């Protein structure tokens, strides 16, 4: 007799994960960036693939290796990430926005390198807002599809943190919000993570801390 092939609980699901941090160019050699390593998003992509899902990872400037078992879509700017996410979300059961998307980009990109001689002792940058990708994905999502957001917050007080997160959840309109406590020595660059998952109504459906891989599994459990 044939042995039953073990299928993971996410078998047949198509999941899109965004990870990393966008870079917004200033000139041909410089950019504005952030400290996201992409490790939590990559861990979610890897965990989902191990559980049988078909995973596409939209990867913005990862500082960690991407898993070989996922389809990789490399991007750099918020505009590129938006284009890839909107296109791929149309075919996905779940989109998980773990990427740190730049809120602003330089209003103009200098064609040549910005030179000190032309700037003097001070340089002001004019920035303009980037579109909110998570909000757009939540607005466009079809019936039965899930959109999961992340919230990186530096608020140390738990109640204040939850209040901020619930406000963000309402503003975004996503199905779940993974609240991530970040700071100079937590969250972004570290290998461990501490998260709280809120559902659409703002109720806590999971809390986890530990390795980004164990946290990834808890997040996937919570969104079902
Ligand atoms: N996000 C997005 N598009 C943006 C900014 C953020 O899709 N232009 C997504 C992130 O990927 C994350 C969620 O929105 O899933 C929350 O990001 P966060 O930076 O915590 O919230 P913001 O809405 O940008 O608010 P702020 O940074 O002012 O706290
Ligand atoms: Ca932001």
From TrEMBL:
Annotated residues that bind CTP are located at 103, 113, 131-134, 150, 168, 172
Keyword field: Decarboxylase, Flavoprotein, FMN, Ligase, Lyase, Magnesium, Metal-binding, Multifunctional enzyme
Q: Which GO terms describe its biological process?
A: coenzyme A biosynthetic process; pantothenate catabolic process
- Pathway annotation: Cofactor biosynthesis; coenzyme A biosynthesis; CoA from (R)-pantothenate: step 2/5; Cofactor biosynthesis; coenzyme A biosynthesis; CoA from (R)-pantothenate: step 3/5
EC number(s) on record? Answer: 4.1.1.36, 6.3.2.5
Which superkingdom, per the lineage? Bacteria
Region Phosphopantothenate--cysteine ligase, annotated ranges? 15-224
Give the UniProt entry's GO cellular component terms: phosphopantothenoylcysteine decarboxylase complex
Q: How is the cofactor bound?
A: Binds 1 FMN per subunit.
Q: Which reaction does it catalyse?
A: N-[(R)-4-phosphopantothenoyl]-L-cysteine + H(+) = (R)-4'-phosphopantetheine + CO2; (R)-4'-phosphopantothenate + L-cysteine + CTP = N-[(R)-4-phosphopantothenoyl]-L-cysteine + CMP + diphosphate + H(+)
**What cofactor(s) does the depicted protein rely on?**
Mg(2+); FMN
Q: Which GO terms describe its molecular function?
A: FMN binding; metal ion binding; phosphopantothenate--cysteine ligase activity; phosphopantothenoylcysteine decarboxylase activity
Residues of the DNA/pantothenate metabolism flavoprotein C-terminal domain = 10-223
Where are its TM segments located?
A: none
- Report the function annotation for this chain: Catalyzes two steps in the biosynthesis of coenzyme A. In the first step cysteine is conjugated to 4'-phosphopantothenate to form 4-phosphopantothenoylcysteine, in the latter compound is decarboxylated to form 4'-phosphopantotheine. Catalyzes two sequential steps in the biosynthesis of coenzyme A. In the first step cysteine is conjugated to 4'-phosphopantothenate to form 4-phosphopantothenoylcysteine. In the second step the latter compound is decarboxylated to form 4'-phosphopantotheine.
Tell me which family the UniProt entry assigns to this protein.
Answer: In the C-terminal section; belongs to the PPC synthetase family. In the N-terminal section; belongs to the HFCD (homo-oligomeric flavin containing Cys decarboxylase) superfamily.
What name goes with this protein?
A: Coenzyme A biosynthesis bifunctional protein CoaBC
User: What is the protein's species of origin?
Assistant: Ruicaihuangia caeni
Q: Which gene encodes it?
A: coaBC
Instruction: Report which part of the complete sequence is shown.
Output: 178 to 401 of 401
